[in-house]
Amino acid sequence: MAKKAWQRLALTMLWLALPFGVNAQDAAAVLKPTADALRIAEVKALKVVAAGSGYEKGSTEPQPASVPAALVAAGRATADPSSPMYVPPPPARPRSYYRIVSQVQELDLAAESLEIEQVRAESSAPDAAKTPAATTTIDANADWSLRHRYWLTPHAFVAGALAHDASVGTETLAGTEYRVVSFTVGGHEVRGYVDPEDRLVRVRTTVESADGQAADVVESFFDWTDHDGLTFPSMLIRKENDELAEVLVVQAVETGAAG
Known about the structure:
Order of helices and strands: HHEHEEEHHEEEEEEE
Mean pLDDT: 83
Structural class: alpha+beta
Strand order of the largest sheet: 4-3-2-1-11-10-9-8-7-6-5
CATH architecture: Clam
Oligomer: single chain
CATH topology: outer membrane lipoprotein receptor (LolB), chain A
Distance between the termini: 64 Å
Number of domains: 1
């Protein structure tokens, strides 16, 4: 009897030590309220019309020399970081702002593709010159640097979590505990955060940039609003390494046939 009790205790301790997501709540149950709001079972294609602001990294042109040659020649500065006369390089250029005059996202869940057509202006002035519409097509074979944008959308994330072997854990951010639904696609982990009100509030993943640096990308969803029976966020905010990348105010949401 003592041996069996010890075995039960050992199994309990092993269960408590299991990693994130094992023996956790069923992902489908956690996502059901959001899936119902998005009408995941019936929506195969979605068109989202929005406008807002974009923020992109500054110029990639070489930075000015960290120590002006004239100062070095005059003995007033040095390139040696350990010296008190060291002059540090200038700070990185901030992200530049542009206005998103219009952005149309067309999501095809059957093909797992996303097409984004965008018109932008370089300032917020009403008469600012607008660029011609630019279209970005993100299909199932796109590089992850673009492909992640598909999985950051509410419909793609929920459909993907239901189709893949998703796990559920918890994470506390700013004092709020979220249930975190996680799955891996193409070797990349995608995580969705469900708040105490059972609403999907953000999707998160990691993207490696051209210089080999990893970027933490988070798309957050705010103010869910009804659109003819389909509930969708009214505001979408994307951040990269906690810096604003895009703020969109949703103007219209339409469902339609895929293809």
